[in-house]
C-alpha cells in the first residue's frame, strides 16, 4: 500500500510538471474526459523577440540553456501571482489565470504577473527582448483532442487577444501591453498601476482593442482612470502584427 501511494504521488508530480498541478490533481482524482466549461479567465502571452537571430548566432546547447533560464523566470513570476503556464510554444509561453479552478481577481493577477515579468527579465536577462500581452474575459477551458491523446486547453477571445497584444508589444519601447477588458475586470489597486492609451484594430478581430500600459512605477505618473471604449474620442488605428 505504501509503495502504491508513493507511486501515485510520483506520477502526480510528473504529470503536474507537464500539465500544471491543478490539472494533474483533477486528472488523478476525477479522471479525464473530453469537453470543457466556460470560465472567466485571464491570459498572459510572453514571447521572445529575434528568436531566429538567436538560433543562428548561438549553438543549439546555448539556445536551450538560455530558453530554460527565460522560462524559469516566466514560471516563477506567473506562479507567484497564482497563475500557471498552460503551454510552451517554441520561445514563448501561454499563461492562464482562473482555470481550471475559479480564481479571485484573475485579471488583476495576470496584470501583476506581467509587471513582475517585465522587471525580472529586464534585470536578470537583459540580453533578451520580449513582448508580453494580457487580456481577460470568458473562455472555454477543458480537454480537447481524442480519447487516446488529449490536452488541457483554454480557448476563447481573450487568448487570441493576448497573443495579438504580445506581437504588438514586441515593436514598442515598453514590452507590456494589456487590453482595456483586463483592466475593467481587475481590482482597483492593480488597475491604478496602468495607464490607458489609444484603441487599435488588431489583425483578425472585429472590434477595436483598448490598449493599456504599466504606469507610475518608473516615472511616478499615476495610472489614468478606467474609461470605456465608448467614451474614447477618435477612430481606432488598424495595426496588423
Features:
globular; disordered C terminus; alpha+beta; 241 residues; Alpha-Beta Plaits; nine-stranded mixed sheet
What is the average of the pLDDT values? 82
Run of helices and strands: HHEHHEEHEEHEHHEEE
Q: Assign the CATH architecture of the largest domain.
A: 2-Layer Sandwich
The CATH superfamily of the largest domain is Nucleotide cyclase, GGDEF domain
* Helical stretch tally: 8
Shape: globular
Q: In terms of per-residue confidence, which ranges show pLDDT below 50 for 5 or more consecutive residues?
A: 217-241
- What is the straight-line distance between the termini? 56 Å
- Helical fraction: 40-55%
Largest sheet: 9 strands, mixed
- The domain tally reads 2
CATH class of the largest domain: Alpha Beta
Query: Taking Cα atoms only, what radius of gyration do you get, to the nearest Å?
Result: 19 Å
Structural class: alpha+beta
| Percent of residues in β-strands | 25-35%
Examine the coordinates and then state which fold CATH places here, giving the name of the CATH topology of the largest domain. Alpha-Beta Plaits
The number of distinct β-strands equals 9
Amino acid at each position: 500500500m505504501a509503495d502504491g501511494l508513493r507511486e501515485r504521488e510520483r506520477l502526480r508530480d510528473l504529470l503536474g510538471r507537464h500539465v500544471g498541478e491543478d490539472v494533474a490533481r483533477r486528472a488523478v482524482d476525477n479522471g479525464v474526459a473530453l469537453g470543457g466549461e466556460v470560465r472567466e479567465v485571464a491570459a498572459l502571452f510572453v514571447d521572445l523577440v529575434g528568436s531566429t537571430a538567436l538560433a543562428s548566432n548561438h549553438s543549439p546547447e546555448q539556445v536551450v540553456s538560455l530558453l530554460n533560464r527565460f522560462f524559469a523566470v516566466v514560471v516563477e513570476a506567473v506562479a507567484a501571482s497564482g497563475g500557471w503556464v498552460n503551454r510552451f510554444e517554441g520561445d514563448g509561453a501561454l499563461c492562464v489565470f482562473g482555470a481550471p479552478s475559479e480564481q479571485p481577481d484573475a485579471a488583476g493577477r495576470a496584470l501583476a504577473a506581467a509587471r513582475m515579468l517585465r522587471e525580472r527579465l529586464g534585470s536578470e536577462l537583459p540580453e533578451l527582448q520580449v513582448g508580453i500581452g494580457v487580456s481577460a474575459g470568458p473562455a472555454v477551458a477543458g480537454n480537447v483532442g481524442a480519447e487516446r491523446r488529449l490536452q488541457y486547453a483554454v480557448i476563447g477571445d481573450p487568448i487570441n487577444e493576448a497573443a495579438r497584444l504580445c506581437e504588438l508589444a514586441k515593436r514598442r519601447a515598453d514590452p507590456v501591453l494589456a487590453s482595456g477588458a483586463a483592466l475593467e475586470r481587475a481590482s482597483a489597486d492593480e488597475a491604478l498601476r496602468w495607464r490607458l492609451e489609444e484603441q487599435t484594430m488588431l489583425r483578425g478581430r472585429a472590434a477595436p482593442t483598448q490598449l493599456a500600459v504599466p504606469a507610475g512605477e518608473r516615472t511616478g505618473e499615476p495610472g489614468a482612470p478606467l474609461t470605456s471604449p465608448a467614451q474614447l474620442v477618435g477612430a481606432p488605428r488598424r495595426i496588423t502584427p
